[in-house]
Amino acid sequence: MTDDRMALIELVEKQADGDLVREMLAFAAERIMEAEVEARTGAAKGARTALREVQRNGYRDRDWDTRAGRITLEIPKLRKGSYFPSFLEPRRTAEKALVALAIVLEPMADNGSLQKAYVHGVSTRSVDDLVKAMGAGGMSKSQVSRLCAEIDERVNAFLSRPLEGAWPYLWLDATYLKVREGGRIVSHAVIIAVGVKEDGKREVPGVATGLSEAEAFWMQFLRSLADHGLRGVKLVIADDHKGLRAAARRVFNATHQRCRVHWMRNALAHAPAKSRTAMAAMLKTIFAQETKAEAEKQWDIVAEALREKQPKLGALMDASRDDVLAYMSFPREHWAQIASTNPLERVNREVKRRADVIGIFPNDDAVIRLVGALMLETNDEWTVARRYMSLETIARVTDNPNVRLPAVAS
């Protein structure tokens, strides 16, 4: 085995964990067994043809212990002779290669060659090595392509699923990935939306890519979420962006919360390096207040104190108070989560980590495929995790007419 292939397999092994991987492994194993048995029998399952060489005879169960966990296989039986899946021997190499093939592979291009393949950041240059490593000699590239297309369909189904119930809070953030376009390498914005539903749990309602974060792009993305059923949005948490603010207001009639963490960085950039620590301490006194009214009063005091020596900072504070303190109109129990885009930081780090291995994506579809698969895995984790917000507190910001938003002192 070459050093390149070993490096690829080691990378897959490190990243192969979780329920999604087990499910995808089982899915891929089933398709590979069907392809191998089809090659042995000379006919597809259930097909009546003179080319059939042997009949099927049901299935036998066999547990498959993988590094992602135990998987129960249904191995096809034949009336004459026997069949044993090629990927079970040798087990370790086959398992890692299966993980690489199973999660997210680019379907074959029109010219009949598998040009692009990646799984959670696995590079696309060793598809043939992966197929050989599986030991699946009876599996053609067209069959691999069919398998990959089915997995791709599942990712697309996740991203286009109906969005049910109310989503009071919606976080939006963009990260930039390099995409090859018309012979050039350009940076495309990848937008990930995360919301909290009326049951207090987080979900990923959508992902999109675009050349920029202009208002038209935000409008199109938010309308697509609305078309899938997203409703009840009260607060959109994101960086400062006039186009996003306008789109959120027009599509959802929602308030915009400017990320407090990013605002602090922008504010301190206006201060001399030697005085930033003192200025940061002054600004933090605003967010330590118990009520929105007290925070607004402290904001004005700090702005006035800084205005004479730091006019640019004073102007920034005058223009941004309402956006930065918007979260204080919502239940205090939620302030830590809704004051910034920090809940999306881990998600974005994972996207960048996987994308860095690929380097340059061939097109936007490839970006959506990788990010969509990662979001599907993340969404599954959140489904079985504890509630992000309690039912009692989230009920205060839903559209339930029997529940009122708590009054805020002014």
Short note summarizing the structure:
InterPro entries: Transposase_mutator. The protein has helices at residues 3-15, 19-41, 91-102, 127-134, 141-159, 215-227, 242-252, 260-268, 276-287, 292-307, 311-324, 335-338, 345-358, 364-384, 391-394, and strands at 56-66, 69-78, 169-181, 184-196, 202-210, 235-238, 255-258, 360-361. The chain is an alpha/beta fold.
Explain what you see.
With 410 residues, this protein is α/β, with parallel strands linked by helices. It has 2 domains: 3-159, no CATH class; 169-397, no CATH class. It has 15 helices and 8 strands. The protein has helices at 3-15, 19-41, 91-102, 127-134, 141-159, 215-227, 242-252, 260-268, 276-287, 292-307, 311-324, 335-338, 345-358, 364-384, 391-394; strands at residues 56-66, 69-78, 169-181, 184-196, 202-210, 235-238, 255-258, 360-361. Strands 3, 4, 5, 6, 7 and 8 form a 6-stranded mixed beta sheet that branches. The chain is elongated, with a radius of gyration of 26 Å. It holds the Pfam family Transposase_mut.
Q: What's the number of helices?
A: 15
Q: Averaged pLDDT, please?
A: 78
Fraction of residues in helix: 40-55%
Our count of domains comes out at 2
Shape: elongated
For the CA atoms, what is the radius of gyration? 26 Å
Largest sheet: 6 strands, mixed
The total count of strands amounts to 8
Q: Give, in order, the helices and strands.
A: HHEEHHHEEEHEHEHHHHHHEHH
Kindly report how far apart the N and C termini lie: 70 Å
